[in-house]
Amino acid sequence: MRAAYLTGHGGNEVVCVGPRPRPVRAPGEVLVRMRAATLNRVDLYMRDSGAGITHRLPQIMGIDGAGTVEEADADEPLLQVGQRVLLHPGISCGRCEFCARGEGVLCGTVSYLGEHRDGTLAQYVSLPARNVFPMPEGFSFEEAAALGVNHLTAWRMLFSKARLQPWETVLIFGIGGGVSLAALQLAKWAGAHAIVTSRDDAKLERALAMGADQAINGAREDVAKAVLKLTGGRGVDVVIENVGAAVWGSAMRAVVRGGRIVTCGATSGDQPPADLRRIFIRQLNILGSTLGDLHEMNALLRACAGGAIRPVIDSSWTLDELPAALDRLEAGAQFGKVAVRLE
Ligand SMILES: [Zn+2]
């Protein structure tokens, strides 16, 4: 089968597109004929170094994806051959204390597609049936693929971690990125007030058109001061953050006393000052989050059935164009997901 795989670490010179062995389905697994995947920052991280993530080269790239069921157990109860499905990329043990309480994302042996094992930028992927979910009606393969990482991550951040309420205000940094746009859609779907930031006016305009209530250009304005002005000096209830060091200080100053900051990324650096005095005096809640669990995926997909939630696709590329697609993600110019079609 054709796949995009890493032969080393560095720039796009280590990204190869060519033949790889087709996976052999084990009992309990579903073999999926992949149709689309979308790129995530972690794809760049794996290409650049993959440091701290146990993996073996060559390894097929790609974390999220959607396709059709090619092969399943004869007694598979929920999925049929030919059915349109999307993937949850976290394969956990299903038995440890974390898995037993429905938190497979905390499982000590969790293994992610495209990080610890071969990923989704391939014609076929075989994975446990519980990681395979029917696609929402009317979604393209690109849109469905995008749900499995970004929307799932935003869902866990907003609803499981921050427990966002409809009357609350949420501040979302770096609108244009996949998780940030997903958080905007989900926050508005939940009835909350959403303030977004970007350094790009065009992205802010598009976010406002998508339903953002207010927009702040972080290149021109002090974000924390602007937020306090917009909220009558109070601050926001929830901050959704994946930019890291560059905005952490603003996040800490923009949140209301007793508010919640949820972080799932650190693109601009992971060691900002902790500002402990502010954290304990103002009783701030700092919440870490990564991806989401199978039950959160179910909840997200039920929410998607209503039609109000649909990932934004920035651009769509063929597998052979992957290096250019990776460049587009790396440049940060995208608005929404950079998708790859797997025909
Ligand atoms: Zn486990």
From TrEMBL:
Origin superkingdom: Bacteria
Keyword DNA-binding: no
SMART domains the record matches: PKS_ER (SM00829)
Key words, A-Z: NADP
Residue stretches making up the Enoyl reductase (ER) domain: 10-340
GO MF annotations, alphabetized: oxidoreductase activity
Pfam families in the record: ADH_N, ADH_zinc_N
Signal peptide per UniProt: none
PANTHER family hit by this protein: QUINONE OXIDOREDUCTASE
Protein name: Zinc-binding dehydrogenase
Species for this entry: Azohydromonas caseinilytica
